[in-house]
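WARN retry 2 of 3 for item q-0093 after timeout on previous attempt; input resubmitted unchanged.
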Amino acid sequence: MKYRVRFNKSAGQPGRGTIDHKWRVFDENGKEYLCKQVVIEVMCWTKVDANGMDWNIEANGNIRIDREDSRITIQPESLPCN
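OK item q-0093 returned
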């Protein structure tokens, strides 16, 4: 699956996570995850968003979500995800 990672400019605002939730991760179906840390273990690249103003880091892989640490890891597709 393809993922896009973007800085959370509205961290701390209502519905946008705490002030520490600095990252937004989107899957190719449009689902959004807010997290404090992102680890990317696969090749990635930058790409401007469809709005022409925001830049993303994009990567293909699986995500592993660690809710205790609020960390998302994008890992190779050959590894199991949760």
